[in-house]
Structures are given as C-alpha cells and as structure tokens.
Amino acid sequence: MEQENCIFCKIANGEIPSSTIYEDMDFRVFLDLNPATRGHALLVPKKHFADLFELEDELAKKAIILAKQVAGRMKEVLGCTGINLVQNNGEAAGQTVFHFHLHLIPRYENDMAGITWNPETVSSEELQELVKLFSE
Ligand code: 5GP
Ligand code: ZN
Fold first, then answer.
1. Measured between alpha carbons, how far is 73 from 98 in angstroms, rounded to an integer?
2. Which residues are catalytic?
3. Confidence of residue 2 (pLDDT cuts 50, 70, 90)
C-alpha cells in the first residue's frame, strides 16, 4: 500500500499535512507547493503506484473522472479560463516524485505558466514508419 520514504504516500494518507481541496477513499487532491499558476493542484491515489504504467485500471478511470470534476470546480471558484492536465512519467518526462500524480493547472489569460514545447517537422515517410511500428 504505502511505500517507505514516499512523500506523496504520506501526504495522501494524511501523515503529512497538505492544503487539501478534495478527498475520498481512493484519492487526495492538494495544492502544489511550487505552483505553475494560482490554484495548481495535484491529484494522487492513496495507494502507492510509481507512475501511469503501474496505476490500476480502475483507479485510472476514477482519476480522470475526478480530474474532470475538480477541473470544473476550479473554473467556478478560481475563474480560470483554461486548465492543463499534466502527468509526467519517468525522469526523461520530468517526473520528480515517483508516486503517480496528475497536475491540474488552472490557466488564466496571459499567465506565465509556459506549458509548451518546440514543434518539430516530420516527413510522411517517418509518419508511415511510426504507424508501422504500432501495427507490428
Ligand atoms: P513532477 O515533476 O514529479 O511531475 O511533479 C512533482 C510536483 O510535486 C512538483 O510540482 C512539486 O512542486 C510538487 N511537490 C513536491 N513535493 C511537494 C510537497 O511536499 N508538497 C506539495 N504540496 N507539493 C510538492
Ligand atoms: Zn507513494
């Protein structure tokens, strides 16, 4: 269930206090200590899973439904006009806490969150090659 020395296990299970905005049997949603924008929250399961690949399917389903509900609530109470859901898996993807979490990042006109990437170009041959890889 809980993994030793996992900060999000301790937060999720209430051993370490957090600014909680939602809690049920399976999940806790709390405010990020270093927010990208006002109201940036993290949705975590109470049970330990390192990342999306480990997360149980039933909890994955519940997580996205809960994210939808919290995102709606954020729009109501914060007045944000957009929301990014961000979910990092692995160091290469920027994951720093290895307990599954979903970022809910409220977005405001002209905020400085900068959640973006540099779009590259891709040839039709490369696209075909990629499609082929997934069909094997
Ligand atoms: P990651 O980079 O793993 O996707 O995101 C980890 C997030 O957890 C970061 O946004 C970071 O600010 C947040 N964080 C790390 N430790 C704590 C903590 O002890 N409390 C809270 N509320 N947020 C944390
Ligand atoms: Zn954990």
1. 27
2. 101
3. confident
